[in-house]
Design a protein that fits this description.
Blueprint (H helix, E strand, L loop, with lengths): L6 E6 L5 H8 L5 E7 L3 H10 L4 E3 L1 H5 L6 E4 L6 H10 L3 E4 L7 H14 L3 E3 L7 H11 L6 E9 L19 H18 L2 E9 L4 E3 L9 E3 L5 E8 L4 E7 L6 E8 L2 E5 L9 E5 L4 E4 L10 H12 L7 H20 L3 E2 L23
Parallel strand pairs: 1-2, 1-4, 2-3, 4-5, 5-6, 7-12
Antiparallel strand pairs: 7-13, 8-11, 8-17, 9-10, 11-12, 13-14, 14-15, 15-16
Helix pairs in contact: 4-5, 5-9, 6-7, 7-9
């Protein structure tokens, strides 16, 4: 494996989200996408051909490619830790889709083995590296709304079975609205307000089975194995508080993220997106609009930052440590709801450094 020039990448998982990733990863000059792997060999071949990737096949075959330095893991959540650990055992760095793992134990194993092998690992979401949340971070850090007091985050809709062709995995343990969408909101909150120290939550589900609405499986029923409505109080180590609601049980769709400070309320765009203007609601009733560039590379810029970190000998911004803290918070929310008691968060993390001015994913920086 090379130690200079573009970083060789192998993608594991050729499902729906791989289209967004491969569109971007194959366009970044600092990356060389060499392989697409999937348990379905034909799907791997088709996706590789679509994006001009030279290699395709199984995970084992990917790990035999000496040109692959970084494994990008897009498999279902229950496989995240297993695939990342296999990458480490083969001497590869790894990037994984969220969540880092579906249990704290598996998440800790990822962190421990990466440290033992001297390898880097990053974890989605990387939306906080987009221009919208970077602008929000600068505004909060510069006290543009005064000292932060609290936050409100709400994600709710009727459930992904209405649009996803095979949604059962989104209602299994390790998924649901908390593990599927929670990482976007909680990662943004940690970046804006710092780590969480305690949570108190309640949870429930409206029904034990759901029905697929779209695609070849339409009409098929499947079980619900995780809470689909969760609401929590968050206490941040820096002193701010927060309210979080995550629901697949609502006929009223909402994507809402607000930070309240002593001098105003910052209305942040959907944290599952990379762009969108910010609005600051002042105490006198005026509203300041902070414009954000309307276009930005999307999913994959965290993997790019990780690749550059490999060459530069630094930690990635969308780090596994951040992913583990968010995992710890999500697991603690469900534990709190089950125990009907507050849960202290054992982990902590420092918010990632903001991107430097002029950071450009389309630039060639690795000679």
């Amino acid at each position: 494996m090379t130690a200079a020039g573009p970083v060789g990448v192998g993608v594991v998982g050729a499902g729906n989200i791989s289209t967004q990733y491969l569109t971007n990863l194959t366009s970044f000059p600092d990356l060389d996408v060499r392989f697409v792997a999937d348990v379905d060999a034909e799907r791997a071949r088709s996706r590789a051909a679509e994006f001009g990737v030279p290699g395709c096949g199984s995970l084992d075959e990917l790990l035999k490619d000496d040109g692959v330095e970084l494994v990008v893991n897009l498999t279902p959540p229950a496989l995240h830790a297993e695939v990342v650990l296999a990458a480490f055992d083969a001497g590869r760095h790894a990037w994984t889709e969220k969540p880092l793992a579906i249990t704290r134990e598996d998440g800790a194993a990822v962190l421990d083995r990466a440290a033992a092998r001297g390898l880097l690992v990053g974890c989605a979401p990387d939306t906080f590296l987009g221009p919208a949340l970077q602008a929000a971070r600068r505004l909060v850090d510069e006290r543009g709304i005064g000292a932060p007091l609290g936050a409100l985050s709400v994600f709710q809709n009727p459930g992904p079975e209405r649009w996803h062709p095979n949604p059962a995995f989104l209602f299994a343990a390790g998924a649901g609205p908390v593990f599927d969408l929670g990482p976007y909101y909680l990662t943004a909150l940690v970046q804006l307000l710092g780590p969480v120290r305690r949570v108190s939550a309640t949870a429930g589900s409206s029904r034990s089975e759901r029905t697929v609405h779209q695609g070849p499986l339409a009409g098929r029923r499947f079980p619900v194995g995780t809470p689909t409505f969760v609401q929590a109080l968050l206490e941040f180590r820096g002193g701010a508080g927060g309210v979080a609601v995550f629901s697949f049980d609502s006929g009223l769709g909402r994507t809402q993220l607000e930070i309240t400070g002593g001098e105003g309320v910052l209305e942040v765009p959907d944290p599952n997106q990379f762009v969108g203007d910010l609005r600051v609601h002042r105490l006198d009733g005026s509203v300041d609009v902070v414009g954000v560039p309307p276009e930005s590379p999307t999913r994959g810029i965290g993997a790019l930052d990780l690749a550059r970190a490999i060459r530069q000998g630094r930690a990635p911004r969308a780090s596994a440590a951040l992913g583990y803290h968010v995992l710890d918070v999500m697991a603690s929310m469900l534990e709190s709801a089950e125990r009907r008691a507050a849960v202290d968060i054992a982990s902590t993390v420092e918010p990632a450094a903001p991107l430097e001015p002029g950071w450009d994913p389309t630039a060639r920086t690795l000679a």
